[in-house]
Amino acid sequence: QVQLAESGGGLVQAGGSLRLSCTASGRSGGRYAMGWFRQAPGKEREFVAGISWSGRDIRYADSVQGRFTISIDNAKTTVALQMNRLKPDDTAIYSCAAVYAYNADFAGGKAHDYEYWGQGTQVTVSS
């Protein structure tokens, strides 16, 4: 079993930056692809970014490309999401997800690619 814990959410003005972190525990081997999703009030959950455990394969949603950066640490236990030039439309609950991956370069882009989910952290961008 894998537990995921997010941190770093908060309130920021439009144009500002936030950095989210997600730490995985209760696993071994470090062979987990990880990703970030978000869900705004009244909207469906949407993919934000994904990264393979090798760090070589990275995916972004078109809406965040060029503004957000996902990264994974050398221990393969913490994934970060650096969010720059934030917009009010980025307001949502952001959740971390993980899945065991035999392929070191697999980065999931859909919710059904992932098996484990964190509780989420609120990001609010004011105009």
Layout of strands and helices, then pairs:
Layout lengths: L2 E5 L2 E4 L4 E8 L6 E8 L6 E6 L6 E3 L7 E5 L5 E6 L8 E9 L15 E2 L3 E6 L1
User: What structural class is derived from the secondary structure elements?
Assistant: mainly beta
According to DSSP, the number of beta strands is 11
Q: What share of the residues lie within helices?
A: under 10%
Strand content is over 45%
Reading the helices and strands in chain order gives: EEEEEEEEEEE
Uncertain regions spanning at least 5 consecutive residues:
none
Average pLDDT works out at: 95
General description of the model:
The protein is mainly beta. The protein contains no helices and 11 strands. Strands 2, 4, 5, 6, 9, 10 and 11 form a 7-stranded mixed beta sheet that branches. A 4-stranded antiparallel beta sheet has the order 1-3-8-7, with no helix packed on it. A hairpin with a 5-residue loop joins strand 7 (about 70) and strand 8. The radius of gyration is 14 Å and the shape is globular. The mean pLDDT is about 95.
In short:
The chain is 0% helix and 49% strand. The mean pLDDT is 95.
Keywords:
127 residues, mainly beta, 7-stranded mixed sheet, globular
